[in-house]
Specification:
alpha+beta; 5 helices; single chain; 4-stranded antiparallel beta sheet; elongated
């Protein structure tokens, strides 16, 4: 992958804020004609810089009123265990993010749920049954101060 230039970065900045721009609108915003702008966008897609286009949904509109962060500690740490945990969590719809981290715990999980009973089931039936899981800590979010999907590109 080649270095991103100023125009590539402008394209990325506009697209991550408004993925529904037409190529003509985007080209106008970045100072190109439509054809070279389209070629740049396609190249950024091919190179994996742009990985998709998505609608950002309001969780509360879907009844997902609780946001919970969970730390999971494992008793054993090996590539095999990490692979098994990854496989177990990959298709759990409530788990929005899962990160293998350094520190006192091994995983930091972000989950969206409807209510505390659903979280209790998620914790007891899935998270604490992960391979080698021995301990968890939960943090229920009282107020979301900032949530952003935008990466600083300029």
């Amino acid at each position: 992958m080649r270095e991103l230039d100023r125009i590539d970065r402008k394209i990325l900045d506009f697209l991550q804020k408004e993925g529904r721009l037409t190529m003509t609108e985007l080209a106008q915003k970045v100072g190109l004609s439509a054809t070279p702008c389209t070629e740049r966008v396609r190249r950024l897609e091919r190179e994996g810089v742009i990985t998709g286009y998505h609608a950002h949904l309001k969780p509360q509109a879907l009844g997902k009123n609780l946001l919970v962060f969970v730390e999971i500690k494992l008793s054993a740490k090996s590539g095999e265990v990490f692979d098994r945990v990854k496989k177990a969590l990959m298709f759990v719809p409530e788990v929005m993010e899962c990160h293998l981290v350094s520190g006192d715990f091994d995983y930091l999980i972000k989950a969206r749920i409807t209510e505390m009973g659903e979280y209790r089931q998620l914790l007891g039936n899935i998270l604490l049954k992960l391979p080698a899981a021995v301990e968890s800590r939960s943090y229920v979010v009282m107020e979301e101060i900032k949530e952003s999907l935008f990466l600083p590109v300029l």
